[in-house]
């Protein structure tokens, strides 16, 4: 065999091999029969669940009984460290800068005391630009975090909620059994 015959023989083997690999194999009927229905079921389930979730979300969004808007007034817990040796009360005040809260219905917050045995009542007070003040007492502050919700309509002495200047949390000497202690206030927010 000469070189030319060897090259032609190798070329023929190479071309035959490459033409076999480029031919597409037909998928078996079993694979197609299985893929099509499962693909259709997957698509149908995806659209079905998407429609269900969107429907639930839109019904929650449009039903005012299920939704609640909150305006957070404070970030992180605040510590009221009281010591009634020289003082008669300790106050933690949030400046609201003449905030219009007339569209809100309630004040909500979390509170807890540091000493399990202490019996503490907390005074919650709003003040507006007309120097009107109104307060509510929260009785028996718990040792573990307790969630409180007070309707703004319970603050009787405020006539104009459109220019609120401050919200105060007050511990008074006559409302605490011990002369010193700590109260933590967190998640202060207005609810719609």
Overview of this protein structure:
- By secondary structure, this protein is of the alpha+beta class.
- The protein has 2 domains: 3-62, no CATH class; 70-191, Sandwich (Jelly Rolls), CATH 2.60.120.
- Helices cover 28% and strands 35% of the residues.
- The protein contains 2 helices and 9 strands; from the N terminus they run ααβββββββββ.
- The strands form 2 sheets. Strands 1, 2, 4, 7 and 9 form a 5-stranded antiparallel β-sheet that branches. A 4-stranded antiparallel β-sheet has the order 3-8-5-6, with no helix packed on it.
- Strand 5 and strand 6 form a beta hairpin.
- The longest helix has 34 residues, at 29-62.
- The protein is elongated, with a radius of gyration of 36 Å.
**Uncertain ranges:** none
CATH class of the largest domain: Mainly Beta
**How many domains in all?**
2
Superfamily at the CATH H level of the largest domain? Galactose-binding domain-like
The tally of beta strands, per DSSP, is 9
CATH topology description of the largest domain: Jelly Rolls
Helical content class:
25-40%
Strand residue percentage: 35-45%
Summed over residues and divided by their number, the pLDDT gives a mean of 80
Cα(first) to Cα(last) distance is 96 Å
Shape: elongated
